[in-house]
Amino acid sequence: MRRLLLALPFALLPLTVAHAVDEHDHEHGSLSAHEHGVGRLNAALDGQTLELELESPAMNLVGFEHAATTDADKAKVAAVRAQLEKPQVLFNLPKAAGCVVATQELESPLFGDKPDADDDHDEDAKDGEHHHDHSEIHAHYQFSCSAPGALKTLDLANIFNTFPATQKIQVQLISPSGQQGVEVTAKAAALKF
User: Fold this and answer.
1) Where in the sequence is the domain holding 98, given as residue range(s)?
2) Dihedral-angle region of residue 58 (phi above 0 means left; psi in -120 to 50 means alpha; beta otherwise)
3) What is the rounded CA–CA span in Å between residue 79 and residue 156?
């Protein structure tokens, strides 16, 4: 299944490239631009296995991207991590599908993980000059679903309700009915499998 998710970006590359022409990232020049308010979700349903991979700027989820040093910041990071550790609630999976979490991984510099080399720009700050960190939060979930046929839609409304700074989510989905790339918002937060 992991191979299926890894293949997803290549299967939908034409969609991504078309979107990248519209979205120009001056800083990194990459297809996966760090844009506040925008998250990305890769979803794949293969047999009884559902994989969801959510990537978001930390700003969308915790409200900041710097290392949590104050008690208030540390409490906010802990609260967001606790919310991300409840993916059945976050993704509003129907009980009839019988999905249980098989594995889950949360990764972010804010959780104490080492940042990627190109995510850490503060080393170059000199004489009060500030370079903004672009911290991301990555959440990967694998579910085992006893009745995957009950997964008719993927409802992301709880993500928008839980993290209101998230304005849209770019979704790439592979399901038995095919593949699709779609952008969802709080007003149109569900898509069909």
Assistant:
1) 2-21+37-113+134-165+173-192
2) alpha
3) 19
- Per the structure block, which two tokens stand in for 152? 């008719």
Please give the pLDDT value at position 156.
96
Pairing status of strand 99-107 against strand 136-145 = antiparallel
Q: Can you give the pLDDT at residue 1?
A: 52
> CA 54, CA 144: separation in Å to the nearest integer?
18
- Whether residue 82 is contained in a domain is answered as yes
CA distance 11 to 15: 9
Q: How many domains does the chain have?
A: 1
Walking along the chain (193 residues) 10 residues at a time, the average pLDDT comes out as 50 41 36 78 96 97 92 96 94 93 96 61 40 80 97 94 96 93 95 87
- CB count in 10 Å sphere of residue 148: 20
CB of 134 closer than 8 Å to CB of 44: no
Three-state DSSP class for residue 64? coil
Token pair for residue 127?
């004489």
Quickly count: other Cβ atoms within 10 Å of residue 156's Cβ.
25
